[in-house]
Specification:
Number of helices: 26
Radius of gyration: 45 Å
Number of strands: 28
Shape: elongated
Largest sheet: 8 strands, antiparallel
Number of domains: 4
Structural class: alpha+beta
Distance between the termini: 79 Å
Length: 806
């Protein structure tokens, strides 16, 4: 926390890590090496060509002098462009090529201009970067001198001598020459792509300046026939320093990946000590490696949530993509057990006012994604400025990395990053840094899911090396009733579905208990998840999973408990499990009933409760449910009868059918009584009219108005007294109330019977229901006392396939 006062305002909240203009130095030698190697990544590094967008990359070599000081042994200085008399003297010392050109080995040739050697070295630096060998001193070793005259050509061929892997490319420098034809064509292996170089003929610079072309070692190339003049060329082999040749890289990107692979291998063994450069850094970062072995590469500021979630690592572009490809390629060179696991994280930092004495508080979170863009969880609290270990291939300052350019103060920050760590610490890191949900989501994102890793993670969550299986007693045994957690972590249905499938495949019933304790409470779509619970029951024996399942259901609200249990019982195939869960649901309904009859009657599960109770082998289930509905207020039985009647047919027992008839009869009697009461006309009587204002009240009762107000009271107490008087004097269905204060107090009389009865709007609906019940449950009008059995329920008679309840 820090003060918001003028004297102490700090626009930079990372002072404990260093000043904003300090360069961030990666922690540890391995990270420093990885960071330095990533700095060597170049755009399109390692591709076949390095030219501009034009189809050729043979370009003017402006740094090379036009006069190279070409000297040939036993001939002396040779002027350029070549003259005919020079050619006649030279060709006698050259070796004839198959296509008619002439070749002279390097030991017979020298370029004596000192400026040539200096500029050639600079050119090699440029070429090295474009070929993907940034910061590597490629050396140009003269290979040969070539002369092409009229009719000369070079048919398509490929160099085979690679000097033990040191040669990475060929540099062809055409000295100033006057000629026509003779274009160099290079063929990219594995494709139809060609690169054509005319060496300045089109812009008429060929005779005045050197031009060069570069192609990777082993490329196929050809020289088209020269139609006139002479073409003079020196060819160099671009070679690696001797200490790098042993890696056997075929390109700059290959070499970089090999070196990165060696650096990544060291990451797992990093001791956490600081490098000499770190010790000397002005930032004074004293925080060592905290053991998580992470590397973090911040991505470009234009990387957004939308493109990450849609394409994952496929959304990376420019240097982000090139650096990730370098890391990914290097990682693939490692043995599987030594490889790194990569994630994408959205790192957030913001400052809030905590409301006390002007102090502010910093908040840090990380939202994690798989490399395919699958979101692994919402923003988890993570002090990433301390916990994660950043690379800095661009040698940027902390301000450049952790602050947007337009910020004057520091309200907040958001940046996506590529995060990786060795597989050996993936389980520990994902648990510690990503949080429980994100960590498990990362395991589920693997294809196939590693069951062993999932089991290990769950056992870690339980804080024990080995879990014991749940007790194998009946599912209806005693179970604890635990209050729901206050800060349950939200989880999605998709997450729970994947986890459920993985638990089933793992075949470990102990995982189920952890799942319910840790994650089920945060699932909103609990009812939609119930079929998967049935899947778990089918996978494992019911005694193995009964306790955690029923304990979890019993932690929900009263109405939810019954619904979840009923839905589960209906989905179960195992008879014992179905019976146990049905009895559990009946108990939940009994607990639910006293608290809210109305919610029970209108529950979408009331019909299922009736059905499962009828199907249950234990007769107690149906008996208890029947008693429940018999006790219910008749005004609430409409939805109950409607729902339960769907499950009554000829296959049901006589007692079950009779029970519903009894409940329906109670409802019919209530409907008939209610309709008759509502349809009574409004009547009134005042036996004793000797009270103040009686005439006005009588006029109101006789008239069409539904409301009448009496005012001019000195306060609410006199108004209450008058209300009591009116209730004693008037015999009518009225609502008499008082309200207001002081002189504003008043008494309100409302007619509530006859056409003024608010229940009249329900009469049509009640009559429709009454008619429907009469059709569903026909009864003989002549049935007398003998029409009921010993239990007081109507008899049932069968007529063919029809069932008539009477």
């Amino acid at each position: 926390m820090w003060s918001d006062s003028e004297d102490e305002a700090d626009p930079w909240p990372f002072s404990s890590f260093g000043d904003p203009d300090d360069k961030l130095v990666p922690r540890g030698a391995a990270r420093q090496q990885i960071s330095d190697l990533l700095d060597r990544v170049v755009r399109h590094g390692g591709e076949f060509s390095f030219g501009a967008a034009a189809p050729t990359f043979g370009v003017v070599a402006p740094t090379l002098p036009a006069l190279p000081g070409l000297t040939v042994k036993d001939v002396g200085h040779v002027s350029v462009p070549l003259l005919k008399e020079d050619v006649e003297e030279l060709v006698g010392r050259f070796t004839k090529q198959g296509g008619g050109g002439w070749e002279l080995p390097a030991d017979q040739v020298e370029l004596t201009n000192p400026e040539w050697r200096n500029e050639l070295k600079k050119l090699c630096t440029t070429i090295a970067g474009r070929l993907g060998y940034k910061q590597i001193a490629l050396q140009a070793e003269l290979s040969k001198l070539l002369v092409y005259g009229k009719g000369s050509r070079l048919d398509k061929q490929q160099d085979t001598n690679n000097d033990n892997g040191r040669v990475v490319a060929k540099l062809v420098v055409q000295l100033p020459s006057e000629y026509e034809g003779g274009d160099l064509v290079v063929f990219e292996g594995g494709s139809d792509k060609q690169f054509r170089y005319d060496f300045g003929k089109k812009d008429n610079t060929a005779a005045f300046e050197p031009h060069y072309a570069v192609y990777v070692a082993g490329a196929q190339r050809a020289v088209e026939e020269v139609t006139s003049g002479y073409r003079l060329v020196v060819v160099y082999s671009l070679v690696l320093p001797s200490e790098m040749a042993s890696l056997g890289a075929k390109s700059g990107s290959d070499l970089l990946q090999m070196q990165l692979s060696e650096a990544l291998k060291k990451l797992e063994d990093e001791s956490g000590g600081t490098t000499e450069e770190e010790d000397e850094a002005e930032e004074g970062d004293s925080i060592g490696d905290n053991g998580n072995k992470s590397i973090v590469l911040l991505l470009s500021k234009h990387c957004t949530r939308q493109n990450i979630e849609s394409s994952g690592s496929g959304a990376l572009s420019d240097f982000d993509r090139d650096r990730f490809q370098a890391l990914s390629g290097a990682n693939a060179l490692l043995p599987p057990e030594k490889q790194l696991r990569f994630y994408i994280a959205c790192l957030k930092f913001w400052v809030i006012d905590n409301g006390r004495w002007g102090e502010k508080e910093a908040k840090e979170t990380a939202t994690w994604y798989s490399m395919s863009g699958e979101k692994l969880g919402d923003g988890n609290k993570l002090e990433w400025t301390e916990e994660l270990h950043f690379l800095n291939p661009g040698k940027e300052t902390r301000k450049q990395l952790w602050m947007n350019p337009d910020m004057e103060t520091y309200p907040g920050y958001e940046r996506y990053a590529l995060v990786g760590w060795p597989q050996a610490v993936d389980l520990a890191n994902s648990h510690t840094l990503m949080g429980e949900v994100s960590a498990i989501a990362s395991i589920l994102a693997e294809n196939p899911v590693d069951s062993n890793k999932l089991q290990t993670f769950f056992k870690t969550e339980m804080g024990e090396e080995e879990d014991t299986k749940p007790a194998t007693t009946s599912a209806y045994a005693l179970y604890p009733r635990t209050a729901p957690k206050k800060d349950e972590i939200p989880v999605s249905l998709a997450f729970c579905q994947k986890l459920c499938k993985a638990m089933a495949e793992a075949g470990d019933a102990t995982l189920i208990e952890v799942f319910f304790k840790k994650f089920f409470g945060g699932l909103k779509e609990k009812r939609e998840f119930v079929p998967l619970l049935a899947t778990l029951v089918r996978k494992f024996s019911w005694p193995d999973v009964a306790t955690p399942i029923l304990n979890t259901i019993d932690r929900q609200s009263y109405d939810t408990r019954m619904g979840l249990a009923l839905k589960l019982a209906d989905a179960l195939e195992d008879a014992d499990a179905r019976t146990a869960v049905t009895m559990f649901a009946v108990e939940k309904a009994q607990l639910f009933f006293p608290r809210c009859q109305n919610d029970l009657s209108s529950s979408a599960d009331v019909g299922l409760l009736w059905k499962l109770a009828m199907d249950c082998p234990d007769p107690k289930a149906f008996t208890e449910v029947e008693k429940l509905f018999q006790r219910m207020d008749a005004s609430l039985l409409g939805p109950v009868v409607q729902a339960c009647s769907k499950y009554i047919d000829a296959t049901r027992s006589a007692d079950q059918r009779a029970a519903l008839v009894s409940i329906a009869s109670t409802r019919r009697q209530w409907l008939a009584t209610e309709i008759a009461d509502i349809e009574k006309p409004f009547t009134w009587e005042i036996p004793d009219s000797g009270f103040l204002g009686s005439a006005a009240v009588e006029a109101f009762l006789c008239g069409p108005d539904s409301r009448f107000f009496i005012r001019d009271f000195t306060g609410i107490v006199p108004a209450r007294a008058h209300s009591a008087l009116l209730r004693g004097k008037i015999k009518a269905r009225l609502n008499i109330t008082e309200s207001g204060r002081g002189r504003e107090a008043f008494v309100k009389i409302e007619k509530a019977g006859g056409k003024f009865d608010e229940r009249r709007k329900n009469v049509k609906e009640y009559k429709v229901e009454l008619e429907r019940l009469a059709q569903m449950f026909p009864r003989d009008a002549e049935v007398g006392d003998g029409g009921a059995n010993a239990t007081g329920k109507k008899r049932l008679r069968e007529e063919g396939d029809a069932v008539v309840i009477e």
